[in-house]
Amino acid sequence: MEPIDFLGLLAGTLTTLAFVPQVRKAWKSGQTRDISLAMFTAFTLGVALWLVYGLWLGSWPLILSNIVTLGLAGAILALKIRNRD
Q1: Which residues contact residue 14 at a Cβ distance below 8 angstroms, ignoring those fewer than 6 apart?
Q2: Where are the domains of the chain?
Q3: pLDDT tens-digit profile of 11-65?
Q4: What average pLDDT score do residues 56-81 get?
Q5: Which whole-number Å values give the CA distances from 78 to 2, 43, 44, 71, in the listed order?
Q6: The pTM is what?
Q7: Which one, of 13, 4, 16, 6, lies nearest residue 69 by Cα?
Q8: What is the pLDDT of residue 7?
Q9: What pLDDT, on the 0 to 100 scale, is given for residue 58?
Q10: Cα separation, 62 vs 52, whole angstroms
Q11: Which CATH number does the domain 32-85 belong to among 2.60.120.10, 3.20.20.70, 3.40.50.11010, 1.20.1280.290?
Q12: What's the confidence (pLDDT) of residue 83?
């Protein structure tokens, strides 16, 4: 593995893991009132586009981190839409 790929994996891991506490909190409490629907919609779309970009480049750090981040952000977005609070 190239050092730059390791750096990308580390960055992707840290930024992806940052969503885990938010997903856990929203899932347990059922509360998403303080989460902006517009922001999370734009963010989730942006992550999906980063994933396409990573696939296009064949960049495993981008692909892996954005697959996981898309799942986590998508979960928060789904909770927000379902709760409509």
Answers
A1: none
A2: 32-85
A3: 999 999 998 998 899 889 988 998 899 999 999 999 999 999 999 999 999 999 9
A4: 94
A5: 36, 13, 11, 10
A6: 0.86
A7: 16
A8: 94
A9: 94
A10: 9
A11: 1.20.1280.290
A12: 86
> CB neighbours of 85 closer than 8 A, spacing ≥ 6?
31, 32, 33
DSSP state of 18: T
At position 8, the amino acid (one-letter code) is G
Residue 84 pLDDT: 80
d(CA 28, CA 4): 37
One-letter amino acid at 70 equals L
Q: How far apart are CA 34 and CA 26, in angstroms?
A: 10
Residue with tokens 């790929």: 5
Type of residue at 65: S
φ, ψ (nearest 5 deg) of residue 81: -65, -40
